[in-house]
Design a protein that fits this description.
4-stranded mixed beta sheet
């Protein structure tokens, strides 16, 4: 699972096994340790919501994902889901959850579990 935070936006990318785990088991999580503390991020399937939502508690971001979005996501061509969440009268939080594709350029990162890039030419 990869997370990217910029301003009021959170983008999370998942490999194939992580998409399967979220759809089937309902939770995928990671953490980054800073020695005496850590920063965590978690995806959680929810049967009670209809759009992406997020919260931040105890040094962890939790993004909740509607179960209805995950039914066929592991096998269909849907890249991801997004939502602009109103967090105050003047602010929104943009949430983006998507499948992680293999890069088309040369990279040293292990991408063996990533989805095939749809822009790949053979």
């Amino acid at each position: 699972m990869k997370i990217r935070i910029q301003g009021n936006s959170i983008r999370i990318r998942l490999s194939k096994p992580e998409v399967d785990k979220l759809a089937n088991e309902g939770v995928v999580e990671e953490k980054t340790s800073f020695g005496t503390t850590s920063f965590g991020y978690r995806l959680k399937k929810s049967e009670t919501i209809t759009s992406l939502s997020a919260s931040y508690e105890n040094d962890r971001i939790t993004m909740e994902v509607p179960a209805s979005l995950l039914l066929e996501w592991p096998t269909n061509n849907v890249v991801g889901f997004d939502e602009n969440v109103q967090i105050s009268e003047t602010e929104t939080l943009y949430l983006l959850l998507e499948k992680d594709f293999k890069c088309l350029d040369n990279t040293t990162e292990d991408q063996s579990d990533n989805f095939d890039n749809p822009n790949k030419t053979c």
